[in-house]
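Escalated from tier 1: iron/sulfur cluster holo job.
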Amino acid sequence: MDETRFIPISAIQHFRYCARQCALIHIDGLWAENQYTAEGTLLHRHVDTPGSRFNPRPMDTESNPSDVEFVMQSQDKARKRTFHAMPLVSYQYGITGKADSVEIILNKHGKITAPPRPVEHKRGKPKRDNTDAVQLCAQAICLEEMTGWKITQADLFYHSTRQRIAIEIDQPLRIITCRLIDEIREMIELNQTPRPIYGPKCRQCSLRFQCLPKGTDRSKNPHLYLTRAVPVSLSNRDFS
Ligand code: SF4
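Tier 2 regenerated the structure:
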């Protein structure tokens, strides 16, 4: 695929959260921090530094299902190596990004003996929908193309609850992920930012002051828009 048509993996999660948020970030180039994005950035500090390490701790198969495989292999002196901030790409699907962590099992000769296992770190707690799973699936798709391994399992680690949850990279999840990738590419190539749909998610959105979802929603009248938009606009101006 033409590299100018590549989309960042992060756009998938933005789009799943809100198509307008995705467009504001990836078409209009807007970004703003709030409490939630800042907390996420802080929590990601230790996985955003590229590098790798061997895991020296004893494996814990109860809290970490992926360690089961390690224990089985450990009689053979296999070791788990964790890579952080690993660059990812899929030329087939036209996506690129970075994996927080990728765990790889090596045998005593240093050969990879099992599929790489991406682990995505999240600030909050497990979600009811598949917003986080589709991002993980996109990472798995990239790793499959990069390594030749078929990946069927990956993990989400939630810092608020300290839970590590195994996600099956199955066919339905792959179909949803690929459909989202196509929809995002179409939106970006059409250069169209969708209108806002005001809802509970807007309260946690870091772009709500750029988006003005209450004022720019078509269902609202122009007077209401002006009374809300003008003070925000003036407060962002530097009159010095
Ligand atoms: S404020 Fe609401 S509508 Fe606007 S980008 Fe954020 S989530 Fe989407």
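Residues 56-75 have pLDDT under 50 and may be disordered.
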